[in-house]
From TrEMBL:
Keyword terms: Glycosyltransferase, Membrane, Signal, Signal-anchor, Transferase, Transmembrane, Transmembrane helix
Name of the encoding gene: B3GLCT
GO cellular component: endomembrane system; membrane
InterPro entries: Fringe-like_glycosylTrfase
Protein name: Beta-1,3-glucosyltransferase-like
GO MF annotation terms: glycosyltransferase activity
Membrane topology category: Single-pass membrane protein; Single-pass type II membrane protein
Amino acid sequence: MPTGTCLLGNKVASFCLIFLYCIPVIAAAKDIKEDNHSQVQGDSKRLLDLKEVVFVIQSQGNSFHENHAEKQRQEILQQAANSEQNLPIVLLIHKLSENEAGWSILPIMPRFSATYGRNSSWIFFLEEETTLKIPKLLETLSRFDKEQEWFLGKPLHDDESTIIHHYAFADNPIVFKYPDFAAGWALSMPLINRLATKVKDEPLKSDFTIDLKHEIALYIWENGNGPSLTPVEELCTKEEGSPAAKDCATTLKTYLPFCGDPVEKKDIFIAVKTCRKFHKERIPVVKKTWQKHAALIEYYSDHADATIPTINLGVPNTERGHCGKTFAILERFLSEAVPKTNWLVIVDDDTLISVPRLQKLLSCYDANEPVFLGERYGYGLGIGGYSYITGGGGMVFSREAVVRLLESSCRCYSNDAPDDMVLGMCFNGLGIPVTHSALFHQARPDDYSRDYLAHQIPVSFHKHWNIDPVTVFNTWLAEENDPGSQQPHTMIREEL
């Protein structure tokens, strides 16, 4: 998807193409039920056997995430051993597919059905940060008839129709519920088996994977022909160990990964993409908000303006994607024109970002590895495809990633190609996985569920549409000691 800063509505136009398939979904919203409690539930007298549950950790290929997910897998197995039950099957999702389709889950439904469809009753998905209490989970799942189709989770809903969900359910957005992955979510095996058949018989409708949790809920609901999400109170995103979480089967370990000393500001080079028409409109916002936290920052434009200052890289501005400009920035990063640093961050001129939080987050990653980090989207994952980091929320590169990319022959097919998607294709061809962090955001805070943001310490947001960006920065991204900060979150845990 194009993410340059001088787009004349093309981002909206791109989504509008996807939006066309959502029209029947919006029309069908009137028929959706609030929950599935009217369905017949199972006999709660018999506690579910642990061997009937397959656990799937939504892991990633980067070494930090692999190690974190493996530690979580061992904790689940240790809990099972302590309870003197049979050890369950615990899978790491990034190992279940030869390409990058696994994280989008739907393409691997046939594998779940073929491998576990006869001997298991539930597939339970959880993120790397999700903490699990096995006895409470078994007690919770035992309330539901495993012979029926069930889609269980902690419900989220949109407060208003949003671009990231293609403006679905515009008449009443709160009517549609989708799961908060951080709380864990479950599918019964009858539902898995039917979805597996559907995936094999029908191609996935959308080329783009943007917000997986919402898109999976839509696919399962199937315009009212399938089950909607059933809310389960025991699936929680409350802080692990807190009194409020005593009845929870799942909790959260941390809101912001932090693995030691923050990466120094002088080791992060920040490149801001802009153009002449936005010099007076957007650059002042950057200077009022987050620029003061950046030790090394340059602005790249189609016009050299000494008052900012901006640098003209010799690439003409385009109305669509900005691949030519982005690759010129990558080349400059490795040149002697800028200080040598381990990390490069490329943002748009309407990106709001917390540099101090980014410093903490990057403490978890090895700059000697090829790291391409941000908010992950997918293209064509139902037929293989590739993942990419959407540019508006910020794209983070380790130096090694840039070196490997530029040593390859992969380049833009045109200056106005979508830079983020081309980078995704390039890294996919090099066998370098993109690394997802839910703390980067392609859209504004208003475009996300309040309950979803409540358990985050976000790193970035994007776009100035119908908001005061300075207020948004001070509310969501400013540190506690910044003047005027209204920072809503305080928990940053140093335990990973």
